[in-house]
Design brief:
The chain is α/β, with parallel strands linked by helices. α8 crosses α9. The chain is built from 10 helices and 10 strands. It folds into 2 domains: 114 residues, Cobalt-precorrin-4 Transmethylase, domain 1 (3-Layer(aba) Sandwich); 111 residues, Methyltransferase, Cobalt-precorrin-4 Transmethylase, Domain 2 (2-Layer Sandwich). α3 links the parallel β2 and β3. Strands 3-2-4-1-5 form a 5-stranded parallel beta sheet, covered by helices on one side.
Length: 236
């Protein structure tokens, strides 16, 4: 029987929502027991841990960054504490690590080394928006970010629309908040009027808005402001 530590995948808040509203108490108990973290962004992780009210000084914790700038060749070094018997937590910048966020490669290495991996309960914008959309929750596909170039983006939107109708499969995607309005405009001008679109904004926050309408009805919408707000789009 090995004496490896456990790798905990710890969801964090999707924004400035009260932690007690979205994070189970058990997660906070574990946060007070873990001294080593693999994180997408150290600054964000420190802020979350401070908000969670952990008892130990944050300066005493060890952080390994697994964000975009991190090289996967460093991961064998990152898991050394686990091999030495220490528990480790994985934190993304928002939501669930390893799901449309960094963490999967580290988890794959842990699985390869037969290190125990424990996913914890917490908010996921993908699941929350799907739950509230009224779309097919049995078959769905998350595409992440669509192309930045408009022509390519419009072509991709039409492809997702075809997939939604042909496969009866919900299509989910996101955009950088400052480009939300641009992609929303492309959706309204390029998709069929009878296609259904769900827009989920500020999930779990007090400003949360989730609406599902046909493209035809969305064209009549004038009040919804998506600019610089975290948003997920669903076609069904």
């Amino acid at each position: 029987m090995n004496k490896f530590g456990t790798l905990y995948l710890i969801p964090i808040t999707l924004g400035e929502s009260p932690i007690n509203n979205v994070i189970p108490e058990y997660n906070n108990v574990l946060l007070n027991e873990i001294d080593v973290y693999a994180v997408e962004n150290i600054k964000t992780a420190r802020r979350f841990l401070k908000k969670a009210g952990i008892q130990k000084p944050i300066e005493d914790l060890t952080f390994f960054e697994i964000g975009k700038r991190s090289e996967s060749s460093n991961y064998p070094t990152f898991i050394k504490p686990l091999l030495e018997g220490k528990n480790m937590g994985v934190l993304s910048e928002a939501g669930c690590p390893g799901v449309a966020d960094p963490g999967a490669e580290l988890v794959a290495l842990a699985q390869e080394k037969k290190i125990k991996v424990v996913p914890l309960v917490g908010p996921s914008s993908i699941l929350l928006s799907l739950m509230a959309s009224g779309f097919n929750g049995q078959s769905f596909c998350f595409h992440g970010y669509l192309p930045i170039e408009q022509k390519q983006r419009v072509n991709k939107l039409k492809e997702l629309e075809r997939n939604a109708f042909r496969e009866k499969q919900t299509q989910l995607f996101i955009e950088t908040p400052f480009r939300n309005q641009a992609i929303f405009k492309d959706i309204l001008t390029s998709l069929n009027n009878n296609t259904k679109l769900c827009v989920a904004v500020d999930l779990t926050l007090t400003t949360e808005e989730i609406y599902t309408k046909s493209i035809e009805d969305w064209k009549k919408e004038t009040k919804l402001d998506l600019n610089k707000r975290p948003c997920i789009f669903l076609i069904g």
